[in-house]
Design brief:
Blueprint: H1 4-13, H2 17-28, E1 33-34, H3 35-42, H4 46-58, E2 62-67, E3 81-86, H5 100-113, H6 118-138, H7 144-157, E4 162-165, E5 168-171, H8 177-182, H9 184-202, E6 207-211, E7 220-224
Antiparallel strand pairs: 1-3, 2-3, 4-5, 5-7, 6-7
Helix pairs in contact: 2-3, 2-4, 3-4, 6-9, 7-9
Amino acid sequence: MVEPDAQLDRVAVLADPTRRALYRYVSRAEEPVSREDAAGAVGVSSSLAAFHLDKLVAGGLLRTSFRRLSGRSGPGAGRPAKLYERSDEEVAVALPARQYELAARLLLDAVDAGTGARLPDAARELGEVLGAADAQAHGRPRSRRASLARVEPLLEGLGYEPIPEDGGIVLRNCPFHALAQQSTSLVCGMNVELVGGILTGLGASGVAAELAPRPGRCCVVVRPG
């Protein structure tokens, strides 16, 4: 467990707007990226991007690897490029300190000891409430495209990091990652019901939540359907 002061230091690393933009770009990339790619994405020089990226590495938010981007090897292939990707470190700050994850783990243990039947129902009910609140505030979407546009910020607000892909949405992050490592089937079932409930409450048309586990992503996708 990281000490609270160290967690605050990590959050402070993101105070600079350019650094935040670089972190978001690297975090959403499918593969490790070079400083040149990151610089071009946020509109800064390569040297400035390298400075900020290395600060993020020092803060534990990114990690590095080295690879020849040309795909060649041996003499004349050039030096390996330094690449950046999001680290596995999790940063959470609560003032005063809280232990929500510990409480959640205890709840999972209790659910695992029983049938677990109530958790998916509760997740869907919560999703429907969230979706219905948005529909009441902004109206129901009238097309698949409008449904995707409306559900994306709802999923973003829950920490799923939605990314449009193949006419649907994939979720770059599982907000319950640590818990999913302990009880994968239970948490994945909760996730798909929560997202499905949001779609139902919103009145989304032409899309559905499905389980499609992939390494490094949430187990749920929103697909045309």
